[in-house]
Fold:
Amino acid sequence: MDKAQILNSQAVILEKLISFDTTSNKSNLELINYICDYLSVHKIEPSKIYNDDKSKTSIYYTIGDRKLPGLVLSAHTDTVPADKDQWSYNPYKLKIQDNKYYGRGTSDMKGFISLVLAITPWVISKSFDKPLHVAFSYDEEVGCLGVGPLIDVMKNNICPPELVVVGEPTDLKIINQHKSCHTFETEFYGKKAHSCYPDWGCNAIYFANEFVNELRKIEHSLVHSDVDNNFEPPYSSLNVGRIDGGVAHNIIPDYAKVIWNIRCLPHANFQDLLRDLFEKKVPLLESKMKQKYCDAFISNRNISNILPLNQKNYPEILNTLTKKDPKHKWGVSYGTDAGYFSKIGWPTIVCGPGKIEQAHTSDEFIKIKDIKDGINFMMNLMSGILA
Structure:
């Protein structure tokens, strides 16, 4: 199977993958069934790891002897939503124009998935000495929810690999560091009343606003604390992403909610950065609420945690392929599934075709040249590690 055949196969596979709306709040089973049907032609039967209600599943498969160390290629199957009104094309119908593939997930990460599937017959034909493992997870976009159970199964069934490559779009640069991300939902429960009697109620929005002001103070302090110039921005950061609350302009709101996150440099501990907030500021704010209404309270929930990546060593073949200084560290501020593989001691990097700037955008695309370069890179990587 030559590279031209692989590229043709990849385009056919990508067209099908794009047609499945695998937004994180929807099932990915149709897409997974298509992948399994494709693999069955090559006599490969993936293992499935379902979520609790079996509406989604991760899968992995192995080509070769799973008792030997090898290479893991990993990707997530879910995408962010696509507002069709913001697109020039149907986001779920692959469009080829100006030597680019357009569609939701072309860059993040269905382009990489289609590449891996298209190259699978070539891997089989090579009969490498060491195994290739391919892992596809669900719900990466909403907190890397699927990769944990997937890894729990894999680590009990395969030999620890020499390398894990999470194929997020990095323009084929080696990313061996990324920040963690911790998301919180903080709720304020006050007392409802007519707005003409402000002393009769406890305005949850007012106290939510005070809380946001405390978050802003933390945000400003992070800018002047730890700095690591391998990242942009070079410090830990905090963002308030959503505020809900209130019913009408003439009702004192008894409920408000703030959803926010903190992204930490790999060596930073989010619990340390937020200790003063949760141990001092929030209890003080809650006591002020209770002065207005004795049953008022604040509830805080840690919705999701994306683990950091801080990989110090990886196979020399990567430096050869990318012509990078092996001592140089490439860091990014977004999170991926990579931190979960790294946590169990598997050497892990993030490296894949396409550019992160195209991810999550309207009219998302990946250049056909980037796919071609990705095919060359992955074939050379496998020849270097598995042979």
Remarks:
- The chain has a mean pLDDT of 95.
- The two ends are 18 Å apart (CA to CA).
- The chain has nine helices and 18 strands.
- The domain at 181-305 is CATH 3.30.70.360 (Alpha-Beta Plaits).
